[in-house]
Each structure stands twice: as structure tokens, then as C-alpha cells.
Design a protein that fits this description.
The chain is elongated. It has helices spanning 14-43, 49-85. By secondary structure, the chain is an all-alpha fold. Helix content is 74%, strand content 0%. The protein has one domain (15-79).
Length: 91
């Protein structure tokens, strides 16, 4: 999981938003690798159903959080573009 997260992105600069967006993207890629490894290990019978289920449950929770963060980032970027386009200021 990436470093500390805040739900209030308004104080972040545009560069920080892009950095956090990239970190979130990298985290999602790592989660996909983790899921693939779980599936491979289950199919190769290196892990049992209980371990597989526990791993999937944890990964699904992380994926949900990753997607939640992505949506927050998208919203923040959209809000900033709208503010800039209407002349309400920039960050």
C-alpha cells in the first residue's frame, strides 16, 4: 500500500496530485501482480483454498481502496480544470 493518504487533496499542488496519481497507478499494477500470483499458486496447488481465499479477500479490499482513491484524484483534477476554465483560480 502506498504511503499515508488523505482524503483532502485540496492543499496538494498539481505536481503532487500527479505524483500521487502515479503512485496509485503503480499500486494497482502491484495488486494485479499479486492476484495473478495467488491464482498461479492455487492452480499449482502450492496453496490451499483457505490461503487463496484469504489472499483474495485482502487483495479485493486493497483494490477497492485503490479505486476509491483513483476516483478522488479524478474528481480533484476535474474540479481544478473546471475552476481554471471558469477563472475561479488555480492551484
Amino acid at each position: 500500500m502506498p504511503e499515508a493518504w488523505t482524503d483532502d487533496l485540496s492543499s496538494y499542488s498539481s505536481e503532487e496530485i500527479l505524483r500521487v496519481q502515479d503512485e496509485n497507478r503503480q499500486w494497482y499494477k502491484a495488486l494485479r501482480v499479486r492476484v495473478n500470483a495467488l491464482i498461479d499458486n492455487k492452480l499449482a496447488k502450492r496453496i490451499g483454498s483457505d490461503e487463496y481465499s484469504a489472499g483474495r479477500k485482502e487483495t479485493n479490499k486493497d483494490v477497492a481502496e485503490c479505486r476509491r482513491r483513483l476516483q478522488m484524484l479524478i474528481n480533484e483534477i476535474s474540479d481544478r480544470r473546471r475552476s481554471t476554465a471558469t477563472g475561479l483560480g488555480s492551484r
